[in-house]
What does this fold into?
Amino acid sequence: MKLISLFQKVDVAEKIKNAPDSSYEIGVVIGTFIPFLVLVGIAFWMYNRAKKRDKNGY
It folds into this structure.
């Protein structure tokens, strides 16, 4: 069930349009970008580890 909830389509524009105030809008925008930034961070970390491992000859 948790896996299905990750793939649900979320209409960010609709949430921002119906936002009660500006702080809610900021929260929606930040909440949409956090998963992307986490994935980019993990990919960068994995790349650096692989690069260091190759450099050390392992």
